[in-house]
Amino acid sequence: MAGFFKVLKGGWLSAGVAAVLAVGVCGCASPKAEAPDKTRAGVAVPTAEEAAFDEIAVLTEAMLLVRRYYVEEKPFKDVVYGAIQGMVGTLDPNSSFLPPQPLAQLEEDTRGSFGGIGINVGVDNGGVRVIAPIEDSPAFKAGIHAGDTITAVDGKKLAGATMDEAVKAMRGEKGTPVKVTVERPNGEKLDVALVRDDIKIASVKGVRPLGDGIGYLRITQFNEPAAENFAQALADLDKEKISELIIDLRDNPGGLLESAVDVAGQVLPKGAEIVTVRGRDGVRPQQKFEAGPCGRRFTEIPIALLVNGGSASASEVVAGALKAHKRAVLVGEKTYGKASVQNVIKLALRPDCALRLTTGYYYTPDGKMIHGTGIEPDVRVQVSKAEWRQAQMRRLYDEMPGAALGGVKNMVPDAKDEQLERAKQVLKGARILNKG
After folding, report:
1. Which of 91, 326, 379, 420 would you call most buried, defined as having the most Cβ atoms within 10 angstroms of its Cβ?
2. Where along the chain do the CATH 3.90.226.10 domains lie?
3. CA distances from 11 to 15, 198, 203, 271 (A)
4. Which of helix, strand or coil describes residue 294?
């Protein structure tokens, strides 16, 4: 991207636009070099720069035609913004143009609070797919699950909508009503009436000893405070004299790469590779992230890492690093497989706007690409949606004794978390083998 902006500053873009404006909208002219650098079969072959001039001229002509002939007069800014949105929309579902309001909203998200219904989503052909509901949110209380697809909001279909358009439709002030149409993986469709609320995300929850020397903590999202909160949780559990640790990343949709790296670095040796970012060639790393300096490290304690289909992005970075370095046994289900890198690049000519562009993919320390494939657990424990819902309710009750929200009052009294139980068994088994 640095090269792209260097070209823009060089002035050839403005020269190409000026050439089109000079001939009017009916012609499509572009500057020609006096001496093309090569020929093919006696015919001059345009240079790469000349070819770029031609394509920019086509785009400019189309925008001018819209301005001149479209049935409704459109401000030129709207035409230009629409052209940018269309261009970026052809790349992938995670790239987008961010005019001022969506850019401000994105910056708000990383701070860990916003108003809405409380789901993390990815683009799907028929709408937006729920990666994970945020615990104790309106969506969670209404029984919206990971894997569901939101096909419409207040009757307006989301098919073909960008991620930002879909999120904007669901966001809103606390207390405002909204109706979403949900399609289950089995084809069942239903309308769900919700009331928006302030969504506040605690990055680390449920820190407690489980007995028999095993400690537990859950990372809900890798927002800005996640690494600091994780360090405090480890320190608190260390006071309880735990000998093994379970880290729960189920339904954690990701967050900030820096937070994920800082979390992984606390349980890996200094200098251990955590993740690389590779670009177009898929070979040479653009960036390499290693465990850096931090406070006390917990590099010896055995770890079981809980993952499922709602574990995505930054969660998969942590899971991939700990698995590759054999620092944790992964228990649960295959992860989501969303591990592309988006950089938000503000426009130099309009700093209140930005492009969110996919610039690379995450690769684990053993060279495996996560995006589109996910990470397989070492110990697979598949549970149904109903079983997982009951496990979530049980977990909420354990973390908030006496709670009556989020469906806890309807909890099955003997509900068990099979994936958590298997993780405990794995750690106990490893303890026995190590003693032997």
Report:
1. 420
2. 204-435
3. 6, 46, 46, 43
4. coil
* Euclidean distance between CA atoms 49 and 32, whole angstroms: 10
Sign of CA dihedral 304, 309, 311, 313: positive
Report yes or no: 302 and 431 within 8 Å, Cβ to Cβ.
yes
- Cα–Cα distance between 381 and 119 in angstroms, integer? 24
User: What's the rounded Cα separation, in Å, for the pair 280 and 345?
Assistant: 18
Q: Bridge-partner residues for 354, per DSSP?
A: 98, 346
Question: Residue 102 CB: number of other CB atoms within 10 A?
Answer: 20
Query: How much is the pTM?
Result: 0.69
CATH superfamily name and code, 204-435: 2-enoyl-CoA Hydratase; Chain A, domain 1 (3.90.226.10)
Quote the percentage of the chain above a pLDDT of 70.
83
Is residue 343 pLDDT above 70, yes or no?
yes
CATH 2.30.42.10 is held by the domain 113-200: yes
User: How far apart (Å, rounded) are the C-alpha atoms in residues 181 and 179?
Assistant: 7
Where in the chain are all domains bearing CATH 2.30.42.10? Answer: 113-200
pLDDT tens by residue, 3-55: 322 222 222 222 223 323 233 333 333 334 444 445 555 666 778 888 888 89
- DSSP string over 312-372: -THHHHHHHHHHHTT-EEEEES------EEEEEEEETTEEEEEEEEEEEEEE-TTS-B-TT
